[in-house]
Amino acid sequence: MEKIKDALEKAKSRAEQKPVHTATLAPAAGPTQENIQELANETNLNAINYTNTKTVELSAQHLEKNRIVAYNKSESATWIFDKLRTQVLQKMQENNWNTIAVLSPTPASGKSFVAINLAISIANQPQKTAMLVDFDLRKPRVAKYLGLECEKSLNDYLDGRAVLQETLVNPGLPHLVVLPTMRPVSHPAEVLSSARVNALMQEISSRYESRIIIYDLPPILNADDALIMLKKVDCALLVVGNGMVKETEIEEAMHHIPKDKLLGVVLNKAEVSAEDYYY
Ligand SMILES: Nc1ncnc2c1ncn2[C@@H]1O[C@H](COP(=O)(O)OP(=O)(O)OP(=O)(O)O)[C@@H](O)[C@H]1O
Ligand SMILES: [Mg+2]
């Protein structure tokens, strides 16, 4: 853990003008819900219309099994994501950012876990709305972790068999929309660079202007997908799996993220203590 902290410290000093926010996540245990000062925001929620969006009720048991803790407000670990949400929203608001890529240096750091819980936590806030897009076209996991079975998904949109509206799902939370990917996509880097994906991102952003859009992606060091997407999003949240990544891999990943787009770093799978929470 010390080595990871050192690497993150180095990264923090590299980002001199825009300090990196770091947070530690350990959803397995944590103090009970604490009061978080929420951001006042003037988002116009009346603009949201779910008439044409499918609503799917999620299974609490399935979510718990997949560590989607933010869904259940009585779950003690939700405070961690609420705190992360507050930090993320503050910085996004300061910079007028709406789109965020969730990245990691290497696989299995917990990107999908963080992306889903963060999206739910944002959607739980009355003045905010969130959209979660599964752009990990190599190993899509959002639908699986949420327990969504969808007839139409991003796969159908990309193949020209569905329009965007048919692929969107509202998972029973008023302010959350998910764009799931049900199957891996061939040539993902090319697809993410394509005019079709550009059009999709444009449509999402223009249709849901006031919404926070979270893109779940593959790891930075294993493919160019994340690098392609970094050019198209406002900012990036780097998830580092505690004990799962070398210091050099963190540094290399940081090197790929433009300084002015690094929203922060989440140290995942770590024990939470008051001393560790900020550093
Ligand atoms: N803080 C945590 N505590 C315990 N288990 C965790 C934690 N975060 C994630 N996991 C588990 O680790 C596994 C990998 O998580 P996840 O799929 O979110 O990683 P990922 O970075 O998206 O992986 P990939 O690189 O394959 O996309 C999952 O089984 C998830 O439930
Ligand atoms: Mg993932």
Q: Would you write up a description of this structure?
A:
This protein has one domain (2-31, 47-273): P-loop containing nucleotide triphosphate hydrolases (Rossmann fold), CATH 3.40.50.300. Helices cover 37% and strands 15% of the residues. The protein is built from twelve helices and nine strands. It has a seven-stranded parallel beta sheet with strand order 1-9-8-3-7-4-6, with helices on both faces. The protein has a two-stranded parallel ribbon with strand order 2-5. Helix 1 runs parallel beside helix 11 (247-256) and helix 3 (78-95) crosses helix 4 (111-123). The two termini are 12 Å apart. Adenosine-5'-triphosphate binds at residues 25-28, 66-67, 104, 107-113, 136, 139, 141, 218-219, 268-269.
What is the CATH homology-level superfamily? Answer: P-loop containing nucleotide triphosphate hydrolases
Helix content: 25-40%
Give the bound compounds.
adenosine-5'-triphosphate, magnesium ion
Number of helices: 12
Strand order of the largest sheet: 1-9-8-3-7-4-6
SSE string, helices as H and strands as E: HEEHHEHEHHHEEHHEHEHEH
In CATH terms, what is the fold-level topology?
A: Rossmann fold
Which segments are poorly predicted (pLDDT under 50) over 5 or more consecutive residues?
A: 15-21, 27-48, 274-279
The number of distinct structural domains comes to 1
Percent of sequence in beta strands: 15-25%
Tell me which CATH architecture applies here.
3-Layer(aba) Sandwich
Keywords for this structure?
279 residues; alpha/beta; Rossmann fold; 7-stranded parallel β-sheet; 15% strand; binds adenosine-5'-triphosphate
